[in-house]
Amino acid sequence: MNKESVDGALEILFKEVNALSNHLRTAPRHGLLNGGHVILEILHRQGPQTVPQIARNRVTSRQSVQVLANRLESERLIQFHPNPGHKRSPLADLTDAGNALLGKVSDHQRDFLNSFHTQASETEILSVVSLLKKLREAVQGQKSDLAGPAKVSAKIEKSRIARRRRSERRPDSPFGSEESKPDAAGSAETDVTEGGLPVNLL
Q1: CATH number among 1.10.10.10, 3.30.1360.130, 3.20.20.120, 3.40.50.2000, domain 9-119
Q2: Which of 43, 104, 169, 174 is deepest in the core (most CB within 10 A)?
């Protein structure tokens, strides 16, 4: 299979995954928020957890888990306890109401999954799982590779803004500040990265 065929197949796969995800997000959860049942299941299986621990388990952001956890707490489905190991990160735990609701959701989910038994074999399902895991890890690797240059660019832009503000505060100088005076070669300013390379060479 050539590169163009693989690209086309990947586009179709991503569209189907996105469409399936959208449908699953709108599936009934007995009144639970999207993702709320997952948090209840994690706490049921692993016991009390901090929000960062739940986020790592779900492979999602701490902020999104915190929003869900706050809602679950307001509905008295989970409760927070002091954490002896980290004063600023309390432990979330299921309440009796949370346990009861999780039982109902689990029964519904079992029926939901049983309805797909005729659609695919275990081998097919595990093959798809393996492929999606491989693609997810590849995406994570690309995001990690891009993090370094992105941070450098952010620092460069922050430095430019700071110089511009200093220049605006010194209207008496034609060049704003000593940093922005032309050098011997006539350059108005030279940005340098952490590695010492001029920006215009990046």
Answers
A1: 1.10.10.10
A2: 43
